[in-house]
Amino acid sequence: MVKPPRPSPPDDEQIRQSIELLFFAYRDFTTRADEILAKQNFGRAHHRVVYFVGRHTGMTVSALLEILGITKQSLSRVLGQLVREGYVLQKTGIHDRRQRLLELTPKGRELERLLTTEQRARISAAHKAVSAASLTGFRAVMLGIMNDDTRHRFTSSEAITDSPNRAKMRPWP
Amino acid sequence: MVKPPRPSPPDDEQIRQSIELLFFAYRDFTTRADEILAKQNFGRAHHRVVYFVGRHTGMTVSALLEILGITKQSLSRVLGQLVREGYVLQKTGIHDRRQRLLELTPKGRELERLLTTEQRARISAAHKAVSAASLTGFRAVMLGIMNDDTRHRFTSSEAITDSPNRAKMRPWP
DNA sequence: CGATATATGTCAATAATGCTGACGTATTTA
DNA sequence: TAAATACGTCAGCATTATTGACATATATCG
Prior knowledge:
Two copies of one chain form a homodimer.
Chain A: H1 9-39, H2 44-55, H3 61-68, H4 72-84, E1 88-92, E2 100-104, H5 106-128, H6 132-145, H7 148-155
Antiparallel strand pairs in A: 1-2
Helix pairs in contact in A: 1-5, 2-4, 2-5
Chain A binds a DNA duplex (30 and 30 nucleotides) through helix 2 and helix 4.
């Protein structure tokens, strides 16, 4: 007891701080939307579906499952509910008729807007409060935290802003 | 009533990207620990309790509730379970005997280590892959995302490592 | 001292999210 | 034609979180 098993203390402290930044930022980021959802008898899962379907109109169910990282049974309840209540439309795929391509109805877009307005304002304020370099740093660290295969989602196509740092990122142990 | 159906599109794209960075980084950050927890019949809530009690030895139940942002009834089951199974100790407060000060047992510390080892490695790698400036930027943005009152947790007291970088962080508008 | 507030715990009911496992159907591909 | 794929669904179970009501011990105030 006199001798606490310490990892390298200064480094460990920095790491723990980042863990906590992630925890608290995520916690505060989601609470407001959760409150709005509760009033409509929806949950966070509905928000995620509406967000990503809005973001990627015409996406397949599989693509959505991969993004959410859940099973089709779990998605089923939520998606089925959104479809039945007129927030999401399913259209049979043209090239592959087994697919159900997803898109938001006007009602769905309305809900998406309602849910993310506060979140976008929050992020927007955070962006405006820092320098462009800070924003780049934020992105670099977030990309470093996620899995390699998830990272492709940001690094491949056009979406990414940037950053020289990316080149330094190692593949991950 | 409301006017702009569209925010300025380029800006909106950057904001959405940050929202997604937050979502995917958090998702990937938690999955491994969740798997370990599942094997022991524990959930993410147990992880959070063990993490924060380990971080703030001797903390009160109220302090933990405030950090977690949940109700005491929700905490009760999880905390009670951890206490009964010997991961967490409760000691009656000295100055205020109504308080139950929380701390980890050796078994609790072991569990905490098991759960966060992978997470710390993940964050550590992300830190090493970027410049000190990027890290500062990451912190600034994360602090900007969280609520004002949550931010005090990082900006006020000692808990912070320290780092010359800290000095550059602005108090926030 | 007595009233009241605080710190904590507990019981009960309810809801949302997620999982595994087992089937079923339509459609595409080999 | 057989196998693989995309999707859906039913059933059962665990975890996390909620509200509301009530209980106990201790502190503090008038």
